[in-house]
């Protein structure tokens, strides 16, 4: 078929032999020993860009004689045209020998399939070298990730230190405020005691000497009972003794914690020991106790 290109004829023969372009590419690899992909061979067949030795090789793979067309069938008109216009050349031994030599080497300037494969391999090698060079210039991704994690970890540590510092400052501020509050309570208690003492002295001056002496000799019944209970509960050996009075601290005595900021110590004569509490917990406990007892509520004894 004179109107068909070599590539089109190859495709027709492949379909008749139930072969694919990939099968033909694999056969070319076996013959030449060079890599040939299906995509490259498809492009070559589409452009019909083959040298004579490549066409001879493909015709040999397909089992077809190499001539202007490789189709075994031809129409009657083509046979007539061939008989009228094509003269059968006389092939001598020298000409056949020269053709056989040309099959092994081509002097034409067109690019062969093997050379095209070499060019593609060279391009792949250049791309791979370029990628390796770029990888050497820039740090690996793993190092960048580790550096980012280190930066995030340092930021978290700085944030945690800042939060801890703010919490510590807040605790110190609260400690100072509660210490001032306890001192004010103590000062008010002292003023209240002084007022009561002055009132007692004024009442004693108004009452006669004998009545005042009798009042001093007979303490109230509540004080007598409290003194008895105190004497029963007091234990100078097991308990903590107040250096100013020489007696054991009374229950519900409160003092600032000597070592822990924001804490107070509450004494329990029944247990004969101090109990550590936060100022917030102690004040909350006193508020609840005051709400429950009402008039019977007794305020704590502030020592500081």
Automatic annotation (TrEMBL):
Question: What top-level branch of life does the organism fall under?
Answer: Bacteria
Q: Which UniProt keywords apply?
A: Coiled coil
Q: Provide the coiled-coil residue spans.
A: 141-168
Q: Where is this region: Disordered?
A: 211-249
- Where in the sequence does UniProt note compositional bias of the Acidic residues kind? 213-237
Q: What is this protein called?
A: Uncharacterized protein
Q: Which organism is it from?
A: Candidatus Dorea gallistercoris
């Amino acid at each position: 078929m004179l109107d068909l290109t070599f590539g089109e004829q190859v495709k027709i023969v492949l379909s008749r032999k139930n072969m694919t372009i990939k099968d033909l590419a694999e056969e070319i690899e076996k013959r030449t020993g060079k890599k040939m992909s299906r995509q490259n061979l498809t492009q070559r067949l589409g452009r019909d860009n083959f040298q004579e030795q490549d066409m001879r090789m493909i015709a040999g793979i397909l089992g077809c004689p190499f001539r202007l067309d490789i189709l075994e069938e031809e129409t009657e008109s083509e046979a007539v045209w061939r008989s009228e216009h094509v003269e059968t050349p006389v092939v001598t031994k020298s000409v056949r020998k020269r053709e056989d030599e040309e099959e092994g080497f081509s002097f034409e300037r067109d690019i062969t399939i093997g050379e095209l494969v070499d060019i593609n391999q060279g391009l792949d090698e250049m791309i791979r070298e370029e990628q390796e060079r770029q990888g050497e210039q820039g740090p690996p991704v793993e190092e960048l990730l580790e550096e980012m994690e280190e930066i995030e970890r340092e930021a978290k540590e700085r944030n945690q230190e800042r939060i801890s510092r703010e919490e510590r400052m807040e605790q110190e501020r609260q400690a100072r405020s509660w210490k001032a509050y306890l001192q004010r309570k103590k000062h008010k208690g002292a003023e209240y005691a002084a007022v009561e003492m002055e009132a007692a002295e004024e009442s004693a001056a108004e009452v006669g000497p004998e009545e005042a002496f009798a009042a001093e000799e007979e303490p109230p019944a509540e004080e007598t009972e409290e003194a008895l209970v105190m004497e029963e509960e007091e234990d100078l050996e097991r308990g903590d003794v107040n250096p100013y009075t020489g007696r054991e601290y009374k229950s519900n005595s409160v003092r600032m914690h000597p070592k822990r900021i924001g804490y107070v110590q509450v004494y329990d004569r029944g247990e004969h020991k101090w109990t550590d509490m936060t100022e917030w917990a102690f004040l909350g406990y006193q508020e609840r106790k005051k709400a429950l007892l009402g008039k019977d509520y007794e305020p704590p004894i502030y020592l500081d």
